[in-house]
Amino acid sequence: MPPASHPFEGWLTDNRIEAPTGQGEGALAARFIVQREGQVAHDRELRTRSSWNSVFVGIEAVPAALNHYMQMHRALVGLLLDDPDFRRAARPR
C-alpha cells in the first residue's frame, strides 16, 4: 500500500471523567496534525466537556458516566470534521 499523500495524526491530551454524587463532569481533548508534502498543514487541539446530574447509586451512575464519555468522543470527532481548516488541509488536491 502506498504511503498517504497527507498523513494524519491525533492523540489525546486530556481524558477525564468524574462521577461523584451530585454533578458528574468530563473533559476530552486531542491534538490533530495533518501533513502535506512533509510540511504541517494543520495543527490544532480541540476540546469538549460534558456535565450531568450524577446519582449516588453505582448501578445508575456508571452507565450515565459511560454514556456521557462516549458522547464526548463523538463530539470531539464532530468538532474535527466541522473544522474548516482541517477540511481544507485534508482535502485532496
Shape by Cα distribution: elongated
Classify the oligomer: single chain
List low-pLDDT spans: none
State the share of residues found in helices, binned by percent: 25-40%
Q: Report the biggest beta sheet as strand number plus sense, adding barrel if it closes.
A: 3 strands, antiparallel
Strand tally is 3
Structural class: alpha+beta
- SSE pattern, N- to C-terminal: EEEHH
CA-CA gap between termini: 20 Å
Radius of gyration: 17 Å
How many helices? 2
Task: Please sum up the structure shown.
With 93 residues, this protein is α+β, with helices and mostly antiparallel strands. Helices cover 34% and strands 45% of the residues.
Detail the topology: elements first, then pairings:
Layout: E1 8-18, E2 22-36, E3 39-54, H1 58-82, H2 84-90
Antiparallel strand pairs: 1-2, 2-3
Description of the structure:
The protein is an alpha+beta fold. It has one domain. The protein is built from 2 helices and 3 strands, in the order E-E-E-H-H. It has a 3-stranded antiparallel sheet, covered by helices on one side. The two termini are 20 Å apart. The mean pLDDT is 90.
